[in-house]
Amino acid sequence: TSENLLWGHIKEFRRKFYVNRIIRGSIALLLISSSMFFLSVTGEGLLGFSSGVRTVIFYLLGATFLGVAGYAIAWPAMKLFNLSKPLSDTEIANLVRRHFPDIDDKLLNLLELRTFAGAQENALLAAAIQKKTEELAPIPFARAINLNVNWKLARYLAIPLLLFLVVGVVMPDVLSNGTTRLLNYNREFIPPPPFQIN
């Protein structure tokens, strides 16, 4: 029972570790994408770039989105669902000892003892493994990862949203024209004349 409980805690730590990485990656993706899109659209709306510059901006936005999504969301998700090699038990032991100073090297030592015990039968070794397992089993390792910290980071998403709102209210043409021209990046747009005819 102690052994099942211990491996359950290790498994839960691994799962929570990758869930945390996916949440952080999603926040980073939204923050980077919205900030870059805001700068690109307002820059286009105010300055009116050429077709070549708009093409570079369009593909740079797309590449950044795909790159961040792949690295920060898809990669941890693949590890979470065992489609790619996840954290080993030894790597988890090293992470756990940072968060639980009382454990120190006990979990790492237990994993080494189990590896050694697999190579040879020894009653004293089995008793040592059992004792360490019972000692570590009640500790919920996953508690070291606090998912609520991510919601504090999510507050930064309000900055680009507020900027969009302010520019949308003060200069709505800048956002609408900039977005239209950026989406039609391969078209040439004639800039408006710097005068009015009455």
In short:
It contains eight helices and no strands.
The helix/strand series, from N terminus to C terminus, equals HHHHHHHH
The number of strands is: 0
Instruction: State Rg.
Output: 27 Å
Describe the sheet with the most strands: none
Share of helical residues: over 70%
- Low-confidence stretches are none
| Assembly status | single chain
Overall pLDDT: 89
Present the secondary structure layout:
Blueprint: H1 2-47, H2 51-80, H3 89-99, H4 106-119, H5 123-136, H6 149-154, H7 158-170, H8 172-183
Q: Any overview of this molecule?
A:
The structure is a single chain. By secondary structure, the chain is mainly alpha-helical. The protein is 74% helix and 0% strand. The protein has eight helices and no strands. The model has no long low-confidence stretch (mean pLDDT 89).
